[in-house]
Amino acid sequence: MHYQAFQEKNNVLKLRKIADFYKASEYEQARVRAVGVFSDPDTSIEAKVWSLTLLGHIDSAIVFRSGKPQSEMSEALLSHARSLRELTKRGPAYLKFYALIMKTSAELGVLVHKNHSLFSAERQHAQTFDNPMLALSLFAERSEVTRRVVAKYNQCLRLVRYAADYPDRWMLSRALVGIVNEIGHFLVALRSENKSAAAKAFSESAFRICKLAAWISKDADDEEGAAFACSVHGQRRIRRTRTNIDGRLRPRKHWPTTQT
C-alpha cells in the first residue's frame, strides 16, 4: 500500500515534469519521459491515461514543428485517442467516458482538417477554373465532409450535455476543451466563405463548452484547468468567463444542435 502511494506521487511529479518540457517546446525530452511512464508496469491506469494524453499532444506538436501536413497532427491525436479507448476498456467508468470524449473530439479534428484541405483546393482551383468537372467533384466531396463535420460536432454536443451532470466530471475539463480546439479550425473556413450566421452559431456553442469546462475545473479546485479553458476561446472573452466562474457560471441544461 505504501509502495503504491509512493509510486503515485512519483508519477505525479513525472507528469508535471513532462508538462513543463512540453510547455518549453522540448518535445523530445517530454516524449521519452511520457513513454517511460506509460510503459512502466507499476504505473496506475490513471497515470497511463494522462501520459497517453500528453503523448498525443506531444506527437501533434512534433508533426507541426516538422512542417508536415497539418492533417497528420489530427491523425496523431486520433491514434492516441484510440489507444486511450483500448486502455480504458477494463478501467473505471469515468476514464472510459474521458476516453470517449477524446476519441470523438479527435475524429472531429480529422474531419475538420479534411474539410479545410478541400476548402483550400476549391479556392486554388477557383483562380483558374480550367477543369469544371474537378470543381464539381471538389464541391460534392466537401459538401459531404461538411455534413459529417456537423454530425460529428453534434455528437460531441451530446457528450457535453452528459458531461454537465456527470458525477465524476472533474476529469473531463481538458477533454471538453479539445472539442473547442478542433471546431475552431472549421470556423476559419466558415468566415472565409462569409457564412457569418453559421460561424456565430458554432462560435457561441464552442464558448458555452469553454464555460462548462471552466466551471468543472473551478468546481474541482483546478485553477490551471479553469484558466486554460478560459484562454482557448480567445482573449476577448476571458474576463467575462472568469467573472462567471466566480459565482454565476453553471452548466447549461439545454444544448441546441448546430447546423450550417
Please describe what this structure looks like.
By secondary structure, the protein is mostly helical. The chain folds into 2 domains: 1-68; 80-260, no CATH class. Helices cover 79% and strands 0% of the residues. The chain has 10 helices and no strands. The chain has helices spanning 2-23, 27-39, 45-66, 71-87, 93-126, 132-164, 173-192, 196-219, 223-232, 238-248. It is globular. Residues 233-256 have low confidence and may be disordered.
Brief overview, please?
This protein is mostly helical and 260 residues long.
List the topology elements:
Blueprint: H1 2-23, H2 27-39, H3 45-66, H4 71-87, H5 93-126, H6 132-164, H7 173-192, H8 196-219, H9 223-232, H10 238-248
Helix pairs in contact: 1-2, 1-3, 2-3, 3-4, 4-5, 5-6, 5-7, 7-8, 7-9, 8-9, 8-10, 9-10
Low-confidence stretches: 233-256
The number of helices is 10
Helix and strand pattern: HHHHHHHHHH
Q: Per DSSP, what share of the residues sits in E-state strands of 2 or more residues?
A: under 5%
What count of structural domains? 2
Largest sheet: none
Rg from Cα: 20 Å
Q: Judging from the principal axes of the Cα atoms, what is the shape?
A: globular
Q: Tell how many strands the DSSP assignment holds.
A: 0
